[in-house]
Design brief:
Distance between the termini: 57 Å
Number of domains: 4
Shape: globular
Largest sheet: 5 strands, mixed
CATH superfamily of the largest domain: FAD/NAD(P)-binding domain
Helix content: 25-40%
CATH topology of the largest domain: FAD/NAD(P)-binding domain
Strand content: 5-15%
Strand order of the largest sheet: 2-1-5-3-4
Length: 541
């Protein structure tokens, strides 16, 4: 046995263990990328660096054996900075998009590539479900959204952007099941007041109802819809389209109280004591909302915390134009969902305003900063020689224009054909990619060590189930060793020297011949999206 100290805690482990294994036995997690159980430990990523205090050295924990008297630090500022440098070096040579640019540019962060793939496969019901994960009003936005996503589409320089906005509308028009969401959670006994029935208020109510919260929506006007009803002409947004979206929310359980002006007295005497939480979504700021609703300003004069949309009054949240003018309805819709998330977290933490009043409890723990959207790797524009690499997953046809005109929208067949023009820019491992995960955790900057030019993208698509993207590879060599363990005849190999080293397929063979047995294990061990499974739609082509 060997005695050592890890993060000031004495440990006794078996001789021959590595520092990484010793730390794990003590319940201490050290990040790794090039390490894999059953494979040779040959440190290359340097994410597992730790500090050996006695020798004043940073060492790779995955390969360094333990020794008597070692004193190890695994998470000091110096160690974290060294890991950050290692990540930034890897990012400088990494070419690929963590998220498709269309999704990044969507204010609601909708999973557009997945929607496109489902529409292309004719699965409009699942496509609509994906849209509604982020956008509560797909039919309305299919008419009025200015489609910033299309401006970012990588297909645009080739011929024309994918018609994302009309495809979004098509998911709601051509769904075969009920377009009213089903599967809501059981009612949880909590009541939320939503003041305002514009895009932000409707969106907030939708996600709260879907999560089991009773919602009462107040509005001073006769009909719900806010600026979508009273500021947008019928020829741009038919009112029956808006009415259909509002009816869906009513059928989900939303209660609409129209012709109700919320004065300061009414807010203080009726709304505040009567609901577990309140969302202010009153639209344009004709008067100071802080004065109307009695919200205390912070030291900067703002009454809203932009991180979670909470106000200085516990349980009161605000979203949409009441905070600042939103130039697009999709921004307000995204704000509404964010406010709903804030309410849900608040009630989960505190039980809500009514519970606090009954139990005389304090506000409870603070909420988290909200959902993070990190995209640590961004390719930028494609060079013309790269077009063919992306077109392997698409079709060459030009953009489809609806035969009945834009107001009529796509037929089912037109939508399926247009969706097939998507280039599949998104990463196939957006969650499990360790490079993205650790880069986000350590705050690594992708441009710190990047040169003036980048490597050219390539995709090997010949395999039935696997895609290989060389420029996402960190050259850890795990796939080479795993292929050898499976007895692959061809397998994979290193080629080149120094900075030009890469993993390739020998003898000019294809990925199909290289990974006949080891494909699944290689994909699962790959720390990035370099080796990834094809989607079901791609496998069925």
């Amino acid at each position: 046995m060997v005695k050592l100290t890890i993060d000031q805690v004495p440990a006794e482990v078996h001789e021959g263990m590595t520092i990484l294994e010793a730390a794990a036995s003590a319940g201490i997690v050290i990040p790794t990328m090039c390490f894999h159980d059953g494979c040779t430990n040959h440190p290359s990523c340097m994410i597992c660096l730790v500090k050996e205090i006695e020798r004043d050295q940073l060492v790779p924990s995955c390969a360094m054996p333990v020794a008597d008297g070692m004193n190890i630090l695994t998470n000091s500022d110096e160690v974290r900075e060294a890991r950050k440098d290692a990540l930034e070096l890897l990012l400088s040579d990494h070419v690929g998009d963590c998220e498709a640019p269309c999704r990044v540019s969507c204010p609601a962060f909708m999973d557009i590539p997945l929607m496109n793939r489902l529409v292309a496969a004719g699965d409009f019901d699942r496509a609509l479900a994906i849209v509604r994960e982020e956008i509560a009003l797909p039919l309305v936005l299919g008419y009025i959204c200015p489609a910033p996503c299309e401006k970012a589409c990588k297909r645009k320089p080739m011929d024309a952007a994918v018609s994302i906005c009309l495809l979004k509308r098509a998911t709601a028009v051509h769904c075969e099941g009920s377009c009213i969401p089903t599967g809501q959670a059981d009612w949880n006994g909590k009541r939320i007041a939503v003041i305002g029935t514009g895009p932000a208020g409707l969106s907030a109510a939708y996600y709260l109802l879907l999560s089991g919260y009773a919602c009462v929506l107040f509005d001073a006007r006769e009909k719900a819809g806010g600026m979508m009803r009273y500021s947008i002409p019928d020829e741009v947004l038919p009112k029956e389209v808006l009415d259909a979206e509002i009816l869906a929310i009513a059928r989900m359980g939303g209660e609409f109280r129209m012709n109700t002006t919320i004065s300061r007295d009414y807010f203080q005497e009726v709304i505040l004591p009567g609901y577990d939480a309140i969302i202010l979504a009153t639209g344009h700021r004709e008067q100071d909302p802080g004065t109307i609703f009695g919200l205390p300003p912070d030291k900067t004069g703002s009454f809203i915390d932009r991180k979670d949309l909470s106000t200085g009054v516990p349980g009161v949240f605000a979203c949409g134009n009441i905070i600042r003018e939103q130039k697009m309805a999709v921004q307000s819709v995204a704000h509404g969902k964010a406010a709903a998330i804030g309410v849900i977290r608040y009630i989960e933490n505190t039980g809500g305003r009514l519970a606090q009043q009954k139990n005389k409890q304090d506000a409870g723990p603070s909420m988290s900063e909200g959902l993070k959207r990190h995209s640590v790797s961004v390719t930028g524009h494609l060079f013309e020689p790269e077009w063919q690499e992306y077109l392997q997953e698409s079709i060459l046809d030009h953009r489809v224009e609806p035969a009945g005109g834009k107001s009529a929208g796509f037929t089912r067949g037109e939508a399926m054909h247009e969706a097939k023009r998507c280039l599949h820019c998104d990463c196939r491992k957006p969650v499990s990619c360790k490079l993205r995960m650790y880069a986000d955790e350590y705050g690594a900057q992708r441009r710190k060590f990047a040169g003036p030019d980048r490597r050219r993208l390539s995709r090997s698509m010949q395999h039935e189930t696997v895609v290989y993207e060389t420029e996402k590879c960190i050259r850890c060599g795990l796939c080479i060793e795993i292929a050898e363990q499976h007895g692959e005849v061809t397998g994979l190999t290193f080629a080149g020297r120094g900075f030009d080293v890469r993993i390739t397929i020998p003898f000019n063979e294809t990925i199909r011949e290289a990974l006949q047995k080891a494909a699944a294990d290689c994909v699962q061990s790959c720390p990035t999206g370099a080796l990834a499974f094809k989607t079901a739609e791609e496998r069925n082509k």
